[in-house]
Structures are given as C-alpha cells and as structure tokens.
Amino acid sequence: MAAQTAYAGNKLFLSASQDADVLGTTRGTLAGIALPVSGLPLTLKGSYGVKTSDFAAKVSAYAVGAEYDLSKRTSVNVALRNVSDTVDTRQFGLGLSHSF
Q1: Which residue(s) pair with 89 in the sheet?
Q2: For the chain, does the N or the C end have fewer beta carbons within 10 angstroms?
Q3: Which helix (H) or strand (E) holds 71?
C-alpha cells in the first residue's frame, strides 16, 4: 500500500508492505519527502525506511540527496544513503540524468 501527496510543490510519500513465504513474514515501511527550493532549480530529497522479518535482523535505512536541474530535461543528482542491519553500510551516489 502506498500514498503520495503534494502541497505547494512539496511531495510526501508513504508506503507499507507485507510479504509472506515459507520462511516467515517480512514487513516494511518507507517515508520520503521532496522539497523544491524556491527560486532555484534545486530539489532536496530525503527518505527513511525500516524492514522487519520473522527470520532476519531489523534493517533501517535513510537517504538524503539533491537534484539540480541544468535544463528542462537534464539534471545532476547527488545522494548519500546509510543502511543499518548487522553491519552499517554507507553509500554515495553522483549522477547525470537526461530525458529523451
């Protein structure tokens, strides 16, 4: 199940999931936000999620990032993500996106 809403250009989304198989049940929740910066071609983004299950350690993760529009169809993206379970993992991403 998921929901998304927008107000004054700001976007908020929430999702929840539940999966069952022979090993047990896995449940997940995720919340995120996208905030355009007034007067700039910049959108700040963030999200947080948690996954629990009957058979594995709890996993939580957050991500923060930004998208800077170079033109109508081209943007530069940067993101930092941290995933915590039995070992903490940090990831950094930098990208260039173009829509044809």
Answers
A1: 83
A2: C
A3: none
The predicted-structure confidence for 35-84, as pLDDT tens digits, reads as follows 999 999 999 999 999 999 888 888 999 999 999 999 999 999 999 999 99
Yes or no: say if 63 and 43 are a contact pair by the CB < 8 Å rule: no
Give the containing element (helix H, strand E) for 62: strand 59-69
Q: Tell me how far apart the alpha carbons of residues 77 and 6 are, in angstroms, rounded to a whole number.
A: 21
Q: Report yes or no on whether pTM surpasses 0.90.
A: no
Q: Which residues contact 41 (CB under 8 A, 6 or more apart)?
A: 68, 69, 70
Instruction: Kindly state the tokens that stand for 34.
Output: 């996208």
Closest by Cα among 37, 33, 28 to 13: 33
SS3 89: strand
User: What pLDDT sits at residue 85?
Assistant: 85
